[in-house]
Amino acid sequence: MNKVAIVGSGFVGATAAYTLAVSGTVNEIALIDVNKTKAEGDALDIAHGIPLIAPLEIYAGDYSDAKDADIIIISAGANSKPNESRLDLVHKNTAIFKSFLPELVKANDSAIYLVVANPVDILAYVTQKVTGLPPNRVISSGTLLDSSRLRYLLSQSCRIDPRSIHGYMIGEHGDSELAAWSITNIAGLPINDYCNICKNACGADFRNEIVEKVKRSAYEIIEKKGATYYAVALSIRRIVECILRDERSILTVSSLLTGQYGISGVCLSLPSIVGRNGVENVLELPLSDEEIRLFNKSANILKDIIKQIDI
After folding, report:
1. Rounded CA gap, 213 and 72, in Å?
2. Which fold, 144-306?
3. pTM for the whole thing?
């Protein structure tokens, strides 16, 4: 039996529950929200489709219902507003997390904690510090979605299947993130070599344009429809199945760094081996000097934020 508890049944939490339900990845989902009526409605709505999918138990509960979950997904918190950065949310959501994490870890201190509320890197750090759980078992969705956006945008430019593109956005899930172009490849070819044989004649600034589009993606969607939730739910599904199947796949999730590129004491995204125990290894890959500089800059931005919060 694979059980997931989702704390926060808003746009992201409810969509993640639906995505996990139809995927057949889990057998049991507990939806936990301060607005229990909303969680009950979401659980009932999904439950009515159970005859059409794999067997599943889904229900609304409270923190005690997380007691035997393999993974606890935390999507509770305030949402980004138009023209508000993810980091603007830090003080509001840190206070929210501090209010429920002690009760949650009291119910379950053996699960993998997956943070998906923004700003995810800061809140993963807060979660680890407040709960005292081993760093490998407190992760966030990090730049997995950003990396997916990078691959999608590259696929549009290169006119090939995005699944044939291997590239990562690293650092903060937010404005200071960067593309690791030096390790991006298509069909085994470094991106520079592939561009030399590609006939699509991309402009000289196309890489900068793509990275800016990645960074603006969430803001654009929020401006158009108020929130992002479909693609992030798919990211959550990918992380969950990777953990439950012990795949040891390489994903750009965020976890507490312990000296990679000289950085520690902050949660940031790097390609990481993810399996049943959470983050099993954070890879230190051969980045360019400029990429390492930008990665350190991203770390310093988050460290400055951490200094301003009360944990």
Report:
1. 31
2. L-2-Hydroxyisocaproate Dehydrogenase; Chain A, domain 2 (3.90.110)
3. 0.94
